[in-house]
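Hey team,

Sharing the EfeO-type cupredoxin-like domain-containing protein run so nobody has to redo it. Sequence (111 residues) first:
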Amino acid sequence: MKKIFLIVLSSVCLMLSCLASAEDKVTLELKMKDGDMMPLTLNAPANKIIRIKVTNIGKGPVEFESTQLVKEKVLAPGASSVVVISPKKPGTYIFFDDFHLNKPKGQLIVK
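Structure output:
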């Protein structure tokens, strides 16, 4: 009887842990096409893990890069990946395509 109670208690704790972690994350989407970023501005809440799903819809390679966020990710045409950013304080964080520096830079606004 004690084993069944411990198994049920462990299952409930695991389920609550999963629910709490889902609330601590936010997922954003960014499309990159030959140096253009859509959208140019991403908004995220402060103090949450930020996941940016980056998709290259262009014909050449792209590189999501941010020196402020200390992140970089190179994507071949048609590829997708996720950049995970630790919880941030409110502010504006700039990102750009390192292969297309002549194109407008994007910004992540954390509020």
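The mean pLDDT is 88.

Ping me if you want the raw files.
A.
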